[in-house]
Design a protein that fits this description.
Elements lengths: L11 E2 L7 E2 L9 E7 L6 E6 L2 H10 L14 H12 L3 E7 L4 E5 L6 E4 L14 H11 L1 H6 L7
Antiparallel strand pairs: 1-3, 2-3, 3-4, 4-5, 5-6, 6-7
Helix pairs in contact: 1-2
Length: 156
């Protein structure tokens, strides 16, 4: 899902019906839902996200871990969603970027914050295993102008 938004130093909030993905640092995991974004294309860009039942449903239906009966596991999709909602349903996410300096910091609900500087070196690991693809997507959401300059956008 690709959305092009032109916003400068304004905050916006999305209703559930308009919700966009908050890309998270695991290609095999779930995405969050983007709740707000401020300062796009600035030195103080920030976006916040949370996880919803819809995020867990998409994950459980895709089931990369083989947990559901449809993929050889023991849980129904409904049980899978309930399990993750109970364990992670209050998780929130935050990413900040300095678009001028090309930096992004991602703060997960647990664990250490991740930081990346763009442009990436030519030999940078951008595989799913590296956790880099969702961070690139976050940077594109917060800093679309810089992302174009660093050749991260599809429409180059």
């Amino acid at each position: 899902m690709r959305t092009s938004l032109c916003i400068a130093l304004f905050t916006f909030s999305l209703s559930a019906a308009q919700a966009a993905d908050f890309p998270l640092a695991s290609c095999a995991g779930w995405n969050g839902t983007l709740v707000s974004r401020t300062g796009t294309d600035s030195s103080t860009a920030v976006m916040k996200g949370m996880v919803t039942q819809a995020n867990f449903r998409e994950y459980c239906e895709r089931d990369p871990g083989g947990e559901t009966t449809a993929h050889g596991g023991k849980l129904t999709v409904k049980q899978c969603v309930a399990t993750y909602t109970k364990a992670n349903g209050k998780d929130t996410y935050r990413s900040t970027a300095n678009c001028i300096e090309g930096t992004l910091s991602f703060v997960p609900p647990r664990g250490e914050p991740l930081r990346v500087t763009f442009p990436l070196p030519e030999d940078a690991d951008v595989s799913c295993a590296s956790g880099m693809p969702p961070l690139i997507e976050q940077f594109k959401l917060l800093c679309p102008q810089a992302a174009r300059e660093f050749h991260l956008m599809d429409d180059e």
